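Much of the work behind modern protein science is quiet bookkeeping, done one molecule at a time. The fold becomes a row of whole numbers, each drawn from a learned catalogue of backbone shapes. The protein below has been through that process, and both of its lines are reproduced in full.
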Amino acid sequence: MTTVIFVEADGTRHEVPARNGRSLMQAAVQNAVPGIDADCGGQCLCATCHVILDEAWYARLGDPNPDEQEMLAPTPERTPTSRLSCQIQVTDALDGLVVQLPAFQM
């Protein structure tokens, strides 16, 4: 099992187990991480699972696909390393991933 750390805007950390083959969003929802509402259930239709990666992790995971970019476009607090957690699949290579949660989602 992979461990992912979600960090709220106030610094509160949530270290959660994430099952490989599932999305980061699913790991957050299954572990009641505040700020990941996942209103669309992971269909890349709402941006309520917005996370911010550091540059190194973003480089490893790559750019958002066009649908994800469209959902992120109007999102408050979007950064150059923003992603939707529903579009990031968990693998062993993500063990120790730290993601920031934007303040507006809290």
Remarks:
- The chain is about 20% helix and 20% strand.
